[in-house]
Amino acid sequence: MYNQLTSEQRYFIEVSLQNGMSKKMIAETLKVHQSTIYREISRNRGVHRYHHKLAQQKCDERKHRMRAIRTFTLDMRKRIFTLLVDEQWSPEQIKGYLERNGESCVSVETIYSYIRFDRSLGGTLWKHCRHALRHVRRQVPRRYTAIRDRKMIDLRPEMADGSRFGDWEMDCVLGHEGKSVLLTLTERSTNFLIVKRLDKGKNAKALARTVVSQLLPYKDNVLTITTDNGSEFADFKYMEKWLDTQVFFAHPYSSWEKGAIENANGLIRQYLPKGLDFNQVSDSEIQKVQFKINRRPRKKLQFESPKSAFYRRL
Prior knowledge:
- By secondary structure, this protein is of the alpha/beta class.
- The chain has twelve helices and six strands.
- Strands 1-6-5-2-3-4 form a six-stranded mixed beta sheet, with helices on both faces.
- α1 (7-18) packs across α4 (52-65) and α8 (204-215) runs parallel beside α9.
- It starts with 6 loop residues before the first helix and ends with a helix.
């Protein structure tokens, strides 16, 4: 918490700024740290300039909001523990969900501190975090095979930017030595996820038919599909025909152009890690992973779940 300034000091700051005095000089005059003045102006200024009355009002409103009890109680720890272990939600998702439902919650960083402290005592909470408290490593680019008659992402309509309902992304997740494959599909605006094992691996025709079978119930809400340049997506015209849609391809080695499905694949890896043979996992277990991810509250949805947002808009 930074130093609390009085209304008289805020008035002095306003007048000093109007007279061209530097923030450093203001801090020296008020005998406070320079960072206090920077934070005060950054937090409490108006649209065009700093005004002492508006600054005081913002400060009073902030103090009022912070009156809620934020002590890390035993009940709160149990609630966070349950959501971490049973649902594998991130600290941000936990905080957002609890506050959305009127429950008090500590900050995201406090939850992370709780996880780190548990780990230092030999606990396993950190294993339930998506990246197990590690940074993601960049993938080494692999060769790709050009697909005939493909439409590149440059031709995709501007409105298919992820804000409208009905634009999808598609990818594959590989199991041990690439011998088992999962098809993943996500609706971009809601992050609703579909996961299906491909019994014939990366066979293009079999994959296209699986995509159609999975999306056919939502045919009226499949406006575009964006994917990468893997040869397994070569039979994209079959998808376009039966789903009455358009398939677009991201540029090679540009995974950020289909970030929604890349993020979804990362969530799947939390439950089905690299090196696992998907043929040893039952369909019900794969479906359970899909259900869990679709239950997770998302920040972009104001901490509503993808499942709820998808079917509400459907």
